[in-house]
Amino acid sequence: MSAAEDRGLTDGPVDLTEKLKQRIARMGPLSVADFMEAALLDDEFGYYRTSDPLGAGGDFITAPEVSQVFGELIGLWCVEVWSAMGAPKPFNLVELGPGRGTLMADALRAASLVPSFVEAARVQLVEVSAGLRKQQKAALQDCGAPIQWRKSLEHVPRGPALIIANEFVDALPIRQLVRKGKGWYERCVTANAKGALAFSVAKRQAADGQVISSIFGSTAKPGEIVETRPLADELIAGLGRRAKRDPVAALIIDYGHTASAPGDTLQAVRRHDHVSPLKAPGSADLTAHVDFTQLAATASAEGLAVWGPVTQRMFLLTLGLAERCQALLEGASPQEAELIVSGAGRLVNSDQMGHLFKVLALASPDLPAPPALAEAVEAPA
Ligand code: SAH
To answer: Whose CA is nearest to atom 25 of ligand 1?
Structure first.
């Protein structure tokens, strides 16, 4: 019997659309945040539970998959920050959403120039996808440091910590709120008369409208949509608690904007193409722009020092991207040389990842400025 027939017999939903429609019929419209969480993390049908998202054959590609130089420079950044912490032994080298483990493998290879760093590192990987955990294990089998997988940052043991998050925050669910009159109303997902998933707006005002107005101003126009990200705020609150006990530095890299502004940025990507976020949820990656101003404001309120944001271009060039590429080009074949140059270009060109992606560091307040974030201040939206 096929899995579908089996499901038919047990009356379970055949896909996430059907599962969500059943939930909506029972409990009413879902908030965009609940919809996004289900689309990405539903136990049976969530995108990160069922798909192998990354790479040329997957749905999207990330900086460490484009060029080894990305992870290598981050590894060197980590060594410097660890030294500034007083070279604690041991310490937690944490990555949130490590994908295929490529960034961490490249970082540890570069950092092995300072063997005491790798000896002191306890690698902590926060990953929901069982398939990606397997790939991370394979990528890191010879990395020279012990590795543990955790459900969330809260599960990482106490102690000094360096935390890396590349394209992780964009996958944390967003709330969307719609301006009507003087109030804010939760944007929701419901089923329309034709039985398709469709956006709707809650009938009652959101209870935290004043907070929303304090972020986005009370002058928003009718119909405008704003976005907040409660789980990012929780993540930063957790960092703040850690920083009260131990030295902590987190490097957050993602695509997004430097000024909080209205706009619907929810986007679904399948096989490198944009698709409708409501069509076939669970089968496409679902993300939204990161609002770096909100992250920075939350971090300051939690007592963390905020460095940046700067553009990915500025960050990588200041860390020595050009010099590292030059070293790699020596002895490279013509085909390898082309890949090295085009990969580096993709990371820093302003019409590719260079300007859209931003880098923010959040750290214990008594640590000195981390490399490449204090001197560069320009970060176009
Ligand atoms: N950092 C990697 C992968 C980015 S894709 C890279 O740069 O290539 C997003 C990653 O975050 C994936 O590994 C995904 O499985 C993981 N992820 C998404 N939401 C998560 C969550 N709530 N908790 C833990 N991991 C999550």
So the answer is: 127
